[in-house]
Amino acid sequence: MSKTYRVGLVGCGGMGRHHLRVVKNLSEFEIASLCDVVPDSLNRAGDEYGVEARYTDFERMYDEANLDLVTVATQTRGHGAPTVAALQRGLSVLCEKPIAIDLIEADEMVAAAEASGAKFAINQQNHVNPGIRKAQALVKEGLIGDVVLVRGRNKAGRKSGNEFMEMGTHVTDMMLCFGGIPQWCSGTVYNGTRLAEAEDIMEAKAMSPRDRDSGLVMGTRAIAYYGFHEGIVGELRFTDYAKTMSGNYGVDILGTEGQLAVRASGSVEDNLWHLPRPMEGTPTQFSDWQQVDLSDIGIEDAVNTMYRRMIHAIETDTQPPSSGEEGRWAFEMIMGIYQSHREGGRRVELPLADRRHSLEQWREAQ
Fold first, then answer.
1. Which residue from 56, 84, 135, 265 could staple onto 246, CB 3.0 to 4.6 Å apart?
2. CATH architecture of 128-300+330-361
3. Phi, psi of 333 (to 5 degrees)
4. pTM higher than the cut 0.85
5. Domain 5-126+302-321 belongs to what architecture?
6. Which CA distances in Å does 279 have to 154, 241, 253, 308, 323?
C-alpha cells in the first residue's frame, strides 16, 4: 500500500485525542483536519498535533479537507449527524461506541453506509482483540466442542444504566463474536434492591454527573439472557460494585468439552485462558486454567488494528470488523434489556419492532 489516508476527526475531547495519538503513530495515515464546536478543545488538539485545518462545522470540513476517512469521537448524542453526513459524501467512518443514542439513529447511519457504499465501523475494538481472534480460531477448530453458553462480564465501577451505554456494547459485541446474531432477549433491571420502574428513568448525566452524555438510562444492576442460533445461550450481568474490576471484563465461552476466558483489560499478551473441561468444579481445581499463547496471530493494540482493517475494507470493498450493522446489533442487545424489563422480563424478539428508545416509550406512556 502506497497511499496515505487522510483522516478528519470530529470531536476533540478526551476520546478524540486518544484517536489522534493512535493515528499519529500509524504510518498509513495523516491527521488532515479537526472539528469541534468548542474552540478551546479544537485549538488544544490542533496545537498539540500540529494540525492547521480546524473547523467548527463538520459539513464544511468534509467539503473542503479532501478526506479519506472520518473518525467520529463525540459523545454518544453527537454520533448520528456527522456520521450520516460523511457517509452521504462517500467518506468512510470509524465512529466511537455505542453507535447512536437510539435505534432510529442507528438505522439511519447503517442505511447511509449501504446507500453510498462507504465503509462504516464502530470502534468496539475488542472485536479484533488478539484474545478474541485467537479464541474464535480455537472454537472453529473444535477445542472446546460445541459452544453452549457465552457469558458477558462487565467492568463495574458504574451504575448499570451508565455502563449499558458506556461499556455495555463492548461486552455485547464480544458476545456476538461467538454467539452470532441474537434472536431474543430477556432482561431484568434493578434500582438498588427493587425492580426499576418508569420513575427511575433519567438522563445519564443525572445518574452520574461526571460520566458522558449518553441519553436515557435506568437502574443500578441488571441481568439479561439471549437466545443465539443453534441453541447457544447468552448471559450478561451488570453488577453495581463501586470499584472498577478490570480483570472481570470480557467474555467466557463454555463448550461441551472445555471453556475459554477472554479478559479485555490488562496486558494484550495474557488475555486468553483455556480450561480443558466443561465444568468449573470446585475452587481447588481452578489452577488448571491454562494461558493461551497469542504470538501466532500477531499481538497489536486493537485500536491500531481497527484503523488498519478499515484500510483493508476500503481497498478490498469488504466489511470492516465491528461494521455499522454489527455495532447496531451490539446496541440492540442493550435496548432489548430495557424493553424486556418493561414487559415484565418476558422474552422479546430481536430486532425490536419499535425503533424508538425503550425508555422514552415507557416514560411517554405514563
1. 265
2. 2-Layer Sandwich (3.30)
3. -65, -35
4. yes
5. 3-Layer(aba) Sandwich (3.40)
6. 21, 26, 12, 38, 34
